[in-house]
Amino acid sequence: MKTTVFKFRSFGENLGARVLIATIESSECVILDFEGVNVVSNSFADECIAKLIPILGFNKLKQKTTFRNINDFARKNVLIALRRRLSIICSE
Question: What is the pLDDT of residue 17?
Fold first, then answer.
């Protein structure tokens, strides 16, 4: 199984979703490593992670990714963003 660790801090301070999409598509499993990240804003969580739901599908995203070193504050914002995206998709 090809596992890739995606360390957010190694990509710089300004991140977009394109690199992450390509990494997920080319790997069997991607570990989203938040080591050294103190804050994940709502907008970042939505643009970088939840935005992947309409692109990849929720099941594929859930199946191919896992989180590492994410603090409670960041986890909360990621979950809120995921729930929002899912509610939008379900209401369409």
Answer: 65
Per the DSSP assignment, residues forming a β-bridge with 3 are 29
Query: What gap in Å lies between CA 56 and CA 75, rounded to an integer?
Result: 20
* Residue whose C-alpha is closest to residue 32's, from 1, 74, 4: 4
CA-to-CA dists, residue 91 to 50, 61, 86, 87, angstroms: 16, 20, 9, 6
Euclidean distance between CA atoms 10 and 24, whole angstroms = 17
Six token digits for residue 89: 């998709």
Residue 33, SS3 per DSSP? strand
What pLDDT digit, counting tens, does each position of 1-12 carry?
Answer: 778 888 877 765
- Cα separation, 53 vs 64, in Å, equals 12
Task: Give the model confidence (pLDDT) of 39-53 as tens digits.
Answer: 888 888 998 899 899
Structure tokens at 11: 């990509």
The pTM of the full predicted model, rounded to 2 decimals, is 0.79
